[in-house]
Every structure is written in structure tokens, then in C-alpha cells.
């Protein structure tokens, strides 16, 4: 089965009987993590209330060529240390510092997708300690939640682990999908929030510019377009960057009551309403891809293989542009693909831009390393001796002077 078969949108999944019931295990409260520790800009965290342990933290980026104060710090998977003295409970074998909860759902459609922890260890769970990921086994991890879905409204979020469906244990995504479809309603899901859960998010609403030859920001703010940008994800390969915005659905939105109400909203609320609409296109694409139907929404796609990132600062921070019509400066960066015009992506804040920026940086760096190692292997062989003179480095002696 492909990963798209591991969800709850009505697509068929091979039947699998759920395991017998198992008693839940109590747990202590999870540790609180500060998501600002991952921003990599060397700035102090703003004052705000303590966030729950399942707060979605964004990517940490690759190091720049000249590390300095405020430059991006490397936080690849290899750099995430194990949790020392991780204690597991005797009943389920899960970390004792995690949290358990129950969600009651009456709707037939859940609006969620599940993967195994190993499927998500390189992206969504890349900043979770490896021994915590290993302790989850093959249990179903929520990897996608549709906006305003039954699962979301019941308190189930991305990164949570489903343990039981109506009292019956589930041990892997396919069995979880089958149990949820066959369960009587209202249905009770027993879920688990792993400790040290910092999710890697690589999507968001941005202003973009991709239809001109200019390498840096355009002269006016009106030249940017609003898109919901994702890097990789469920409906795309890891090297694809998708931008969602359907003219047809927005025309319906603009012609309806929602748009009339939206125009009378304050600017902040209006932006939130438009963002909800953009996310709706993304949700539609997810559902149609899962059902193996033709995607009806408009998607702008870009291939990141062989691409480069262009920024003015040597420390790797994004560029800055200040428009007279805007209250605050915009941060942006430029992607130079192998084919096509430069792609410029912007946001009003570093925090808003950082998830997509760091996701692109991560793939571009890995792609460059793979290409470089491939060229070395092609030129010199796997052991590095192909095409090299075996007597290279020895002192040469002219036979005339013997």
C-alpha cells in the first residue's frame, strides 16, 4: 500500500481485525518545550504563556558558510540527541512522561491520515529524539488533519498517536483505518502525546513572485501574489514545492456571502478568512489524491532539484524589503531553479517565513551533497581509486641522469 492509503477519507483499505482491548496506562504530564529555541536567529524569545508539549515547532535550518551570531544553526536528524534515562511504562512500552487523552467523535468521516513513526522520522518527526520515535513502534501517528474536521474539533492534532478505537488496541495505520471505519458512533479514540514533541512544519501562507526575471523583490507590494506554499508533503514528492490557490473556488468565494462579510472585517480577521480559504484548496487536494481522483484545484508546482537559494546576507538570513504602503518590512528569499524564472517567497515576519525557508534549505543542501557524492563516485569509483595513477605522489626520476 502507498502512504496515501493510510487515512480516513472513504478510500478502501484492506480489512484487518482489531486487536483485543488493553487497559490504558496513566502517565505524568509532559515536559514543556520552548519553540523559540529552534528559530536559529540568536534572538530572545518573546514573552508568552507556556505552550503545550505538542506545539508545532518549525524547521531549524542548515548552517551557513560563515557561522556567526544570529546565523542558522544545523539541527538535522543526526544532531537530535536521545533523551537520557528515558523511562518506559510496563504496560504499553511508551515513555512515561507522555500524556494520554480520549476524544469522542460522532461523525462518520474523521478527516485524518496516519503514518508509522518511521515514515515520518525524516520530516514531521525529524526534531523528536530518536529513542522517543523508536519507542512508538509502528503505531499510527496522525500526519494530517483537515481544517475544521471532526478529528480536529475533537482535539486530535498532528503528531498524536492513536492507541485504541472504542477500547480495542490498534498497532499500525491500516488496522487503525479499518477500526475507525467499522466502529460504531459515537466513537472514542484513546490517544497519546509523546514527550519532546516538536513537529517539523514546512507550509504556510506567503506572498510569492515567480513570473519575472528579477532576482530580488519587485518594486511594489501589489506585484506579489498570495499562495499557500508547501514543500513536499502528502500530495507531492520531497523535491516538489506546491502553491495552492484556485481561481474557480475563489470566484465562488468572492461571489458569495462569505466574501461580502469578509470585506467588512478588520484587516487581521480578513487575512485569517482568506487563509482559511487557501487551506481549503490544500485540503481538497489531499482528499482527492487520497481517493486517487484527479485533483480539481489549481496548483503551481516547482522542482527544487538542482536549485539554489539566493540571499544577500552571508549569515544565511532572509533578505529584507521595505515598501511605503506596508506598515512593516517584509522578509523574503529567492530560489533559483534549474529551469524557469527565480521564485521569490516573502512573509511579514521571520517566524512566518522560517518553516518554508528552512524546508527549502534542508532539501537544497541534501540535494547538493547527493549530487557531489554521486559525481565523486562516477569519477573515482566508490573506493576513490578509479582513474587515479597508483604511483601518484611518488618522486619521479629522469632516466637520463641515472
UniProtKB/TrEMBL annotation:
Compositionally biased intervals (Pro residues): 15-27
Segments for region (Disordered): 1-92
Residue ranges, compositional bias (Basic and acidic residues): 74-90
Origin species: Thalassiosira oceanica (Marine diatom)
Protein name: PDZ domain-containing protein
Biased composition (Low complexity): 28-73
Amino acid at each position: 500500500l502507498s502512504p496515501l492509503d493510510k487515512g480516513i477519507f472513504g478510500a478502501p483499505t484492506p480489512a484487518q481485525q482489531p486487536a483485543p482491548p488493553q487497559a490504558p496506562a496513566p502517565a505524568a504530564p509532559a515536559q514543556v518545550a520552548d519553540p523559540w529555541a529552534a528559530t536559529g536567529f540568536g534572538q530572545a524569545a518573546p514573552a508568552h504563556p507556556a505552550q503545550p508539549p505538542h506545539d508545532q515547532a518549525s524547521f531549524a535550518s542548515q548552517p551557513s558558510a560563515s557561522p556567526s551570531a544570529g546565523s542558522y544553526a544545523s539541527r538535522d536528524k543526526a544532531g537530535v540527541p536521545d533523551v537520557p534515562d528515558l523511562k518506559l511504562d510496563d504496560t504499553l512500552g511508551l515513555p512515561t512522561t507522555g500524556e494520554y487523552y480520549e476524544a469522542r467523535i460522532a461523525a462518520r468521516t474523521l478527516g485524518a491520515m496516519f503514518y508509522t513513526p518511521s515514515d515520518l522520522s525524516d520530516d514531521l518527526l525529524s526534531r523528536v529524539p530518536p529513542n522517543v520515535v523508536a519507542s512508538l513502534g509502528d503505531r499510527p501517528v496522525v500526519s494530517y488533519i483537515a481544517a475544521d474536521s471532526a478529528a480536529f474539533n475533537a482535539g486530535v492534532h498532528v503528531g498524536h498517536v492513536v492507541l485504541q478505537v472504542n477500547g480495542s488496541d490498534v498497532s499500525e495505520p491500516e488496522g487503525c483505518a479499518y477500526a475507525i471505519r467499522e466502529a460504531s458512533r459515537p466513537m472514542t479514540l484513546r490517544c497519546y502525546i509523546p514527550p519532546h514533541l516538536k513537529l517539523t512544519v514546512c507550509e504556510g501562507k506567503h506572498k510569492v513572485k515567480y513570473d519575472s526575471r528579477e532576482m530580488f523583490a519587485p518594486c511594489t507590494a501589489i506585484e506579489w501574489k498570495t499562495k499557500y506554499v508547501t514543500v513536499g508533503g502528502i500530495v507531492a514528492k520531497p523535491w516538489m514545492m506546491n502553491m495552492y490557490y484556485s481561481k474557480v473556488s475563489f470566484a465562488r468565494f468572492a461571489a458569495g456571502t462569505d466574501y461580502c462579510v469578509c470585506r467588512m472585517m478588520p484587516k487581521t480577521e480578513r487575512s485569517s478568512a482568506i487563509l482559511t480559504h487557501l487551506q481549503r484548496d490544500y485540503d481538497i487536494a489531499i482528499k482527492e489524491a487520497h481517493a486517487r481522483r484527479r485533483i480539481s484545484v489549481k496548483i503551481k508546482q516547482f522542482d527544487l532539484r538542482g536549485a539554489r537559494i539566493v540571499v544577500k546576507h552571508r549569515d544565511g538570513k532572509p533578505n529584507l524589503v521595505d515598501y511605503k504602503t506596508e506598515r512593516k518590512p517584509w522578509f523574503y528569499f529567492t530560489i533559483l531553479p534549474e529551469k524557469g524564472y527565480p521564485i521569490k517567497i516573502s512573509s511579514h515576519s521571520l517566524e512566518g517565513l522560517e518553516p518554508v525557508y528552512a524546508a527549502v534549505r534542508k532539501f537544497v543542501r541534501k540535494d547538493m551533497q547527493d549530487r557531489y557524492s554521486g559525481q565523486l563516485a562516477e569519477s573515482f569509483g566508490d573506493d576513490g581509486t578509479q582513474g587515479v595513477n597508483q604511483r601518484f605522489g611518488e618522486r619521479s626520476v629522469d632516466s637520463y641522469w641515472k
